[in-house]
Amino acid sequence: MHGFYDFVSGPLVWISFILFICGSLYRLITMAVLAKEKDPMVYAYMDFYYAIRSIFHWIIPFGSVNMRRQPAMTIVTFAFHICLICVPLFLFAHVILWKESWNISWWFLSDGAADIMTMIVIGSCIFFLVRRLTRPEVRYLTSYSDFITLAIVAAPFITGFWVYHQWIGYKIMLIFHILSGEIMLVAIPFTRLSHMIFFPFTRGYMGSEFGAVKNARDW
Amino acid sequence: MAEPALKTGEIFDEGLDKGIAKLTPEKIEQVVSSVLANETGARLRVYTDTCVHCGLCSEACHFYLSNDNNPAFSPAGKVKQTLWEILKKKGRVSPEFIKHAAEIAYTECNLCRRCSMYCPFGIDIAYLMLVIRRICHKLGVTPQYIQTTAHSHAATLNQMWVKDDEWIDTLMWQEEEAQDEISDLRIPLEKEGADVFYSVIGPEPKFRAQLIYQAAVIMNGAGVDWTMPATPGWDNSDMCMYTGDNEVMGRLKRAHFEAAMRLKVKRIVMGECGHAFRSVYDMGNRWLTWKMPPIPVIHALEFYHDIFKEGKIKIARKYDQPVTLHDPCNVVRGRGLHEMSRYVVNQTCEKLIEMEPNREHNFCCSAGGGVINCGPPFKNKRVEGNRTKAEQLFVAKAKGAKTVIAPCHNCHGGLEDIIHHYGLNMELKFLGDIIYECMEK
Ligand code: SF4
Ligand code: SF4
C-alpha cells in the first residue's frame, strides 16, 4: 500500500508530466511537419492578425453567434474549462506540493472557492453526459470513447472532492486521485482531449481563411 | 452506439449505381489509401482528431433543420457516416457504402461553409466532404448529371458543350440584338490591352444569352473598356472542382487565366456566379499553386459597386417593388461582398427588406456545391432539404418583399425551385436584371 502510494506520487508523476509535455510537443511537431509536407497552404494562408481575431471571438463568452444561440451550453462550457484549468493549478494542496519539492510557489485559491469550482467541474461533466445521452444530434455522434474521455476528465475531480472532504476510504481515494490525474495528463495529447492543444491552430486557420482571403467574419 | 434507421428511400442514379457495379473491395481500399496517403495530411488528421462530437455545428446546416433535425443531416453526422467510417475501417468498405457516401457528399452538402462558423474549432466540414468526393471521383462513382458537365469541361473547356463557333456566334447575335436598343453598342472580341476581361459561365450562352446582352449594355453605359475572348477560356465555371476532378479543374482555370493573360487585360470581371468565383479565387488557383489569382479577379457584385460608387451609371427610375436580397455563400462567406451588394441594391431599388439571418450567416440556397447539377434524381431531396430557406423567404414576403434578388446562377436555380415548390409566388432576379431595367441608357 505504502509502496504503491510512493510509486504513484513519485516516479509516476514524473512519467506522466514527461508524457504530457513530450506527447503534446510530439503531436504538435509531427502535425507541423506533416502540414509542411502535405498541406503547405496552411502556412501560406495562416495570418497572425486574423487568427488572433477569430480565437479572441471564440474564447470570449458569448463572443460568437452560436454561443448566443446556445446560452446554457456556453455558460457550462466556459465555467467548466475555467475551473478545470484553475483548480489543479491553484489548489492550495497542490501549490504546497510544488513548494515542498521545488521550493516554488504561487497564488492559490481559498479552499472554499476550490470546493465550489470542483463541484462546477463535476456538475458540468454530468451536464455533458446528460446532453450526450438526450440530444439526438449529439447522441448520433457519440461513440464509447466519448464516455471514456468524459470519465477520464471527471475522475480526478470526483476523487479529489472525496479526499478533501475526508469521506470514507479517503486514503485509498487519494491514490486513485493521483492516478486519475496522471491518466488525464497523459490522455491530453493522445485522445480527443487534444482539442486543447489544437484549438488555436484549427480556429486560427479558419479565422485566417475567412479574414485574410475571404474578407468575412467566422464567429 | 446503436443507431436507428435514419433515412428512407433509395435513389437510383445511373452514375452512382453503374459506378459501384464496377468496384471491388480491393479497388476501394487501394484508392482510399492512395488519396489519404498522398493527397491529405495534417488538416484531415487534426479535423478528425479535434472534433469533440459535441453537435454544435448541427443547427448551422439547412439540411439538418429542414429535415426536422435529423442528425444524419448534421454536418458532423455526415462526416461520421463517411470519413470516420472510412478511417476506422482503413478503407475496407463495401461498394454500397461508397454509394451512400457519394450520395451524402455530392447531394446532401452544399460545401457552403456555414458550419465552420458554428463549430467552436472551425472544423472545415466542406473540406472533409470534398475529400470524400475526391475518393468517389477516383473510384468512378459520381452522379451522372454532374459528371456529364464535367465531361463537357474536359472535352471543350466549357460546361455546356458549346462549340467554339457557337460561342462567337452567340456574342455577335447578342451584339446585334442590343444594337436595336443602343445603336453604337459593341461586344468587343479579342481586344488586346482592354481594362476588363469579362467572363461568364457556360450556361449563359446556352440558355441565358439575354444576360450577356444586359452585361454589354451595362458595360457600354458605364463606359468600360472591356473585351471577351473568342477562344476557349471564356467559361469561368467549374463542375470538376465539385466532382473531385482536380486535374481538369486545373486545366479549366489555367485556360481562363491564360486567355486573360494573352489579351493583356488589367483584370477579370466575372458575371453573377458564385461557384465560378470560388473556383477562380479559392480552389482552382490553389491547385495551380497560385496563392492568390495571378491577375485580379472581380466578381460582378464588386464591379457593380465600383461603377455605382464612381457614378458611371445613372438610375433613371428606381425599381419600385420591395425586394429582398439573397447572400450567395461563395461571394459572401467566400469574399465578403455583402455590403457592396447592399450598396448597389439601395442605389437601384426603392426598398430592401432583409431576410434573417443574413450576410455571413445567410442560409445557402441548397443548389450550391454542385448539388443542383446532380440533377433530377436528387431534386426533391434538395428542395425539401431547404425548407429553412423557404421559411426565410416567406417571412420576407410577409414583410412586403415581392422580388428576390439572387446574384448567383446556382442560387437562382435553387431559389427558383424553392419558390415554386413552396408556392411562394415571388419574382426572382439577378442584380444585373435590375440595373439593366433601371439604368439610364
Ligand atoms: S451544407 Fe453547408 S452547413 Fe451543411 S454540412 Fe455542408 S457546408 Fe456545412
Ligand atoms: S464539427 Fe465541431 S461543432 Fe461539429 S461535432 Fe465536431 S467539434 Fe462539435
What are the salient characteristics of this protein?
heterodimer; A: 219 residues; mainly alpha; Fumarate Reductase Cytochrome B subunit; 81% helix; globular; B: mainly alpha; Rossmann fold; 4-stranded parallel sheet; 3-stranded parallel sheet; 5% strand; disordered N terminus; binds iron/sulfur cluster
CATH architecture label of chain A: Up-down Bundle
Question: What ions, cofactors and ligands are bound?
Answer: iron/sulfur cluster
> End-to-end distance of chain A, in Å?
52 Å
Give helix and strand order of chain A, one letter per element, not per position: HHHHHHHHHHHH
Query: Can you identify the CATH class of chain A?
Result: Mainly Alpha
Count of folded domains of chain A:
1
Please state the overall shape of chain B, judged from the principal axes of the Cα atoms: globular
Q: What is the helix content of chain B? A: 40-55%
Strand/helix succession of chain B = HHHHHHHHHEHHEHHEHEHEHHHHEHEH
Percent of residues in β-strands of chain B: under 5%
Largest sheet of chain A: none
Query: What is the CATH superfamily classification of chain A?
Result: Transmembrane di-heme cytochromes, Chain C
The rounded distance between the terminal residues' Cα atoms of chain B is 65 Å
CATH architectural name of the largest domain in chain B:
Up-down Bundle
